[in-house]
């Protein structure tokens, strides 16, 4: 399980490593193509190799002007041409110019703060109809005329706090192809923010994310079961975006869409022909222990004998939708559907990696080991357990097992030090020793359960994958070391 | 063209005359049915005859509690059951209890104004990064840490100005069947507001309308051409909701979906099986002069010979979506589609009534006639044109023609008085006299053109139908008296 695959699993598909290549991303080119087709090929072609072909790029000023028109034009005027113009122009810009344009948008099309102050003044000048909601009735100011003024000013204040760039977002959203443009704008914004922290742009991103969440409410999404009968242009996208367990060939794809398997996608009518997110499900007799059982089971079992639906892969296709939890709704709808169609299936589980465990464990071991050393120097005879931050992560019998199994290597070291020394090398040699493996296992399992269920950050599980599933209503059922290559993959069975 | 039909034309389908019957509206029952089906029939049945069967109604308190749960429950808890519970409960309430519940929602789930005040205080305490948007760069306060605090407080203030009831709306929107529930809630709110002006409820309505507009953005709507191959359950809805030119029988319906005709609907995935709005189009050799030409042309012309697409009917199906202009986007998309598929069609027009003309003309005539009388008394010899508000609506030759054609009847009366006297009786006897008809026509045509194009209210055309078309980019091409039964119907050709 590589880092990229995990990122996709969490619906935050990788940003291109070189941001200046964004203009070349398949997504952008696709939209460029779409837009130029819809313009009867009058549109200039998309830049073919980024910054080099500057002569094909529109000048920054031209695109900035079309952005201004798109925002400031009266809505009864014909907007479509302007929005097409802006979209095309944007895609033709170099990454540096896109950055400049997005900063212009964030800073110069922000709130009208003079107006906000003015409305705040008006608002504070009015006697409130009961300061807290519950007193509204007893406030005594029940004159409808007054109340109507009050609500009007409150509404105006609320509206004045919306940034001017909302207009661009709203207009693009109602414009054919515009939702796709917005997701690409956001992917670019995220690329920039990954490199530099710019508050105004972060505020714009947070606003755009809120809008996209609203527009992509499950009510606006269509659930579609993807099968071998779907168009090749759609299946090609499944192959391209599946990144948890890459699809190796057509036979593999056909298998994943065939007997004992399901693939469901969430589609939005404004982004036709590709799912925003899709999930792959295996129908099994029991929860699988390893992903190999799922990917390599020949022949499939009879569907009528299945009792378990295993969600073994979920992939998002739009980097610009990072952080918008569509997976939650998709999983819920698929569970409802499977329950309805196959009442004999009663176990719903996922087979998921635990990407943060290794890092967490190593840093815990390292910091405890440092605290231990510090103690050895400052008060060598004191009881270690008296130190505020010191904690032995291991149970006595786990420690004993570790020391016994590691022999000479362990001389003079405590259990945590042995563990740290053995786990640190990326070669993971210890996995080749069955003695070490069986001595390690109980401690690793227990610590992994603790990591998944007890370690939190702002009320969320520290592990991003675990948090995703737990928030969706999963319970943690079993943890196992399933991948000898990368020993800290594990699995969470859930729902 | 009756009043109801006009209201539907403007996407403001009639509220039931007796609000207490709302629980009986086909829409509500439908949803009730839907909900009880989805509950495996465990749900109590919908009230069958309103207030009478109180024993079948849930008590107000129970529904209020489920509303409270639906709003206040943590989002990681399972909400579906609670939302189903609330929806069912709501539909089982009498109109009086629905009113009570909606008022509770409007008043007790409003803003937290203590929090708003606190955030305003924090906000005003910060030095602004340039008061107007354009000065943001030159403000000099470029410390990212400070800016990030500033944007955070601004965002918090924006969020605090959102009423608590937004949570209910958002949750219903993401809940299967919830969008339909929201449209019914709004239909009820509009019924109440038609009877009494309650500021808090009006504020709630305006908020809900804004949310619905966002969720029903064209990007979330699917355009579908409705044909004779569509399911009967869908076609049945077309018959039920078509209210501009009622569909008399199956042959009539088939004709409207057949050669030389098109019917397009906007569908939302959360309200399956019925369009939110649909439009009927006739493909003709030239713009029709009367609706009869459209409805009764046998046999149809060859589609390849058509040069004109006439939009002869548009109907909205959801009373709860009143005021949300879906028609505008529908017309735009249909025009694009027809242009693409049939490039030989170059004229896009509508044949529309002018519902407000008669009323406007009569009140104009009456007020001028009063001003005239007042003048006769106060300054009988003065020049009438000197009076500030007095205006002869008729041109000299129109006045002459009217006086000559009306004979004895006109003795001592001026043109406007004659017009007023003849137009007032609802029997419209004058339409039977070809002499009067031809004398009236020039003045009526001219005044109608003035009414359509020059009479405005808050920048909008006074006539609601005209305003709808003019806002959509139509131009007024011709006005004619087309309906002898109701002589002030007319038509606007457009686009």
TrEMBL record, chains A, B:
It holds the Pfam family MCD. InterPro entries: Malonyl_CoA_deC (IPR038917), Malonyl_CoA_deC_C (IPR007956), Malonyl_CoA_deC_C_sf (IPR042303), MCD_N (IPR035372), MCD_N_sf (IPR038351). Residues 154-215 form the Malonyl-CoA decarboxylase N-terminal domain. Residues 35-54 are annotated as: Disordered. One of its GO terms (biological process) is fatty acid biosynthetic process. Residues 220-487 form the Malonyl-CoA decarboxylase C-terminal domain. Residues 35-44 have a biased composition (Polar residues). GO terms for molecular function: malonyl-CoA decarboxylase activity. PANTHER family: MALONYL-COA DECARBOXYLASE, MITOCHONDRIAL (PTHR28641:SF1), PTHR28641. This is Malonyl-CoA decarboxylase family protein isoform 2.
């Amino acid at each position: 399980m590589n880092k990229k695959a995990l990122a996709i699993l969490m619906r935050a598909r990788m940003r291109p490593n070189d941001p200046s290549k964004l203009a070349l991303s398949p997504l952008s080119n696709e939209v460029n193509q779409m837009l130029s087709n819809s313009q009867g090929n009058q549109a200039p072609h998309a830049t073919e190799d980024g910054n080099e072909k500057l002569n094909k790029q529109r000048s920054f000023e031209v695109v900035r002007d079309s952005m201004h028109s798109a925002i400031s034009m009266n809505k009864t005027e014909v907007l479509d041409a302007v929005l097409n113009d802006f979209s095309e122009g944007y895609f033709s810009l170099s990454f540096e110019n896109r950055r400049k344009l997005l900063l212009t948008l964030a800073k110069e099309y922000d709130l009208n703060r003079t107006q906000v102050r003015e409305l705040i003044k008006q608002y504070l000048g009015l006697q409130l109809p009961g300061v807290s909601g519950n007193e509204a009735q007893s406030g005594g100011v029940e004159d409808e005329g007054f109340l109507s003024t009050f609500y009007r000013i409150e509404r105006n204040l609320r509206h004045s706090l919306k940034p001017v760039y909302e207009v661009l977002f709203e207009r693009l959203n109602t414009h054919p192809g515009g939702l796709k443009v917005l997701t690409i704008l956001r992917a670019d914004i995220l690329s920039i923010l990954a490199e530099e922290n710019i508050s105004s742009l972060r505020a714009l991103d947070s606003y755009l994310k809120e809008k996209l969440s609203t527009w992509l409410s499950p009510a606006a999404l269509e659930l579609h079961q993807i099968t071998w009968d779907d168009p090749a242009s759609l299946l090609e996208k499944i192959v391209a975006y599946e990144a948890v367990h890459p699809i190796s060939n057509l036979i593999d794809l056909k298998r994943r869409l065939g007997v004992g398997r399901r693939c469901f996608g969430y589609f939005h009518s404004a982004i036709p022909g590709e799912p925003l997110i899709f999930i792959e499900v295996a129908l099994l007799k029991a929860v699988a222990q390893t992903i190999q059982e799922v990917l390599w089971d020949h022949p499939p079992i009879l569907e009528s004998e299945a009792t378990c639906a295993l969600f073994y892969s979920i992939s998002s296709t739009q980097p610009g939708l990072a952080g918008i939890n569509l997976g939650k709704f998709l999983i819920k709808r698929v569970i409802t559907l499977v329950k309805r169609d196959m009442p004999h299936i009663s176990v719903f589980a996922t087979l998921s990696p635990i990407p943060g465990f290794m890092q967490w464990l190593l840093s815990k071991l390292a910091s405890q080991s440092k605290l231990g050393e510090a103690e050895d120097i400052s008060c060598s005879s004191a009881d270690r357990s008296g130190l505020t931050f010191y904690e032995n992560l291991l149970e006595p019998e786990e420690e004993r097992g570790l020391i016994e199994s590691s022999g000479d290597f362990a001389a003079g070291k405590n259990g945590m030090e042995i563990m740290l020394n053995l786990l640190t090398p990326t070669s993971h040699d210890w996995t080749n020793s069955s003695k070490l493996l069986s001595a390690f296992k109980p401690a690793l399992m227990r610590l992994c359960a603790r990591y998944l269920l007890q370690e939190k950050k702002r009320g969320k599980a520290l592990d991003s994958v675990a948090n995703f599933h737990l928030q969706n209503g999963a319970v943690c059922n079993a943890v196992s070391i399933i991948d000898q290559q990368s020993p800290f993959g594990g699995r969470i069975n859930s729902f």
